[in-house]
Automatic annotation (TrEMBL):
The keyword Cytoplasm does not apply. One of its GO terms (cellular component) is extracellular space. It comes from Mizuhopecten yessoensis. Keywords: Coiled coil. PANTHER family: PULMONARY SURFACTANT-ASSOCIATED PROTEIN A, SHORT-CHAIN COLLAGEN C4-LIKE. Residues 66-170 form a coiled coil. It comes from the Eukaryota. This is Chromosome partition protein Smc.
Length: 363
């Protein structure tokens, strides 16, 4: 409003000046007319002497009025000059305002351009937000799916943890039990000290040396059998048979000790306290690298011309005789020393008719 009022002031002043100028022109015309009349009066004065004084008086009066008018015109002229200065000042201010308006218009155009650019960016951002919102919905759905899978995996993990815990308990129990593999120490009633525990000791057993349908393997029979419900079942010849075992040779000297011929063979079942596997290695008295020796001795098996099958076992180098055994030829399963036979057996390293040793190793 203040700016509009300032813009309207010069117009008002111009109208006022024009009005005053018009009045001044009217006054000038009036003065000219009066001057003409004055001349007419002078002529009249010259012609009408009698009326001259009256006219002079009138002229003086009019002259006085004219002076007054001239003073008024001068005052109005001064005011007009003042108004012109004011108009010039206002025109300068108007120009300044126009310059300011132009600058503000330019700034407004710049702002409009900026607003348009920002509007375009806003639309782009809105599109991006819509896209990201869609992606967010998709991600939320994916997260929900993954959470469901995670819950299933957690359930499976808990199940597996339970299984692991159970296995750990079993492993701990196994470690407390000092578990490991077992082996039979043939020819002894005890187990290697500091390495194994004695499960039980007993008698070496197997089949009759001349039975063609006999079992091939040897067993270690306990000293305290516990009979089953068929102990006294009706006797029949359609059975397998179990016999004891004797050291055997063609003289009283055998690899199993002096005077061991026809003596019964003891045995011991041993369990490792620190190892999980064992192996009997024939033709060696020492173990290979990484293995620990349980015991060594002589390789034994049945007589090669006898009809019953047998197996190779390792009889301890410090073989014992069965306590309270009878020094009689009861036969049964026979333990004889084993000799190397060259041919298909490579010689060397083996040698013809040399007795083979053996070793039981643990790991």
């Amino acid at each position: 409003m203040a700016t509009q009022e300032k813009l309207n002031e010069p117009l008002t002043l111009q109208i006022t000046v024009q009005a005053q100028t018009s009045e001044l022109q009217t006054l000038q015309i009036t003065v000219q007319a009066q001057t003409s009349e004055l001349q007419t009066l002078q002529i009249t004065v010259q012609t009408q002497t009698s009326e001259l004084q009256t006219l002079q008086t009138t002229v003086q009066t009019q002259t006085s009025e004219l002076q007054t008018l001239q003073t008024t015109v001068q005052a109005q002229t001064s005011e007009l000059q003042t108004l012109q200065i004011t108009v010039q000042t206002q025109t300068s201010e108007l120009q300044t305002l126009q310059t300011t308006v132009q600058a503000q218009t330019s700034e407004l155009q710049t702002l409009q351009t900026t607003v348009q650019a920002q509007t375009s960016e806003l639309q782009t951002l809105q599109t991006t937000v819509q896209t990201q919102t869609s992606e967010l919905h998709t991600l939320r759905a994916t997260v929900q799916t993954q959470n469901a899978k995670l819950q299933n995996q957690n359930a499976e993990l808990q199940t597996q943890n339970g299984k692991i815990s159970s296995l750990e308990q079993r492993l701990y129990q196994a470690s407390q039990d000092k578990g490991g593999a077992t082996f039979i120490r043939w020819g002894r009633i005890d187990c290697p000290a500091n390495l194994t525990d004695l499960v039980y000791s007993g008698y070496a057993g197997g089949t009759w040396y001349a039975h063609t349908g006999a079992a091939a393997n040897h067993v270690c029979l306990p000293r305290d059998p516990v009979w089953g419900p068929y102990k006294n079942m009706h006797n029949t010849d359609y059975t397998a048979l179990m016999y004891g075992a004797e050291y055997n040779a063609d003289n009283t000297a055998t690899p199993f000790g002096l005077n061991s011929h026809d003596e019964e063979v003891p045995c011991a079942v041993c369990r490792y306290t620190s190892f999980v596997s064992s192996v009997m290695i024939p033709a060696r008295t020492t173990c290979y690298s990484g293995w620990t020796k349980a015991y060594s001795g002589s390789l034994a098996a049945g007589y090669f011309i006898q009809t019953a099958a047998s197996e190779y076992v390792c009889v301890d180098e410090h073989a014992q005789l069965l306590d309270r055994g009878a020094d009689t030829n009861d036969d049964g399963t026979l333990f004889l020393a084993v000799k190397a036979q060259c041919g298909s057996l490579r010689c060397p390293p083996y040698e013809q008719d040399k007795y083979l040793s053996c070793v039981v190793c643990m790991k």
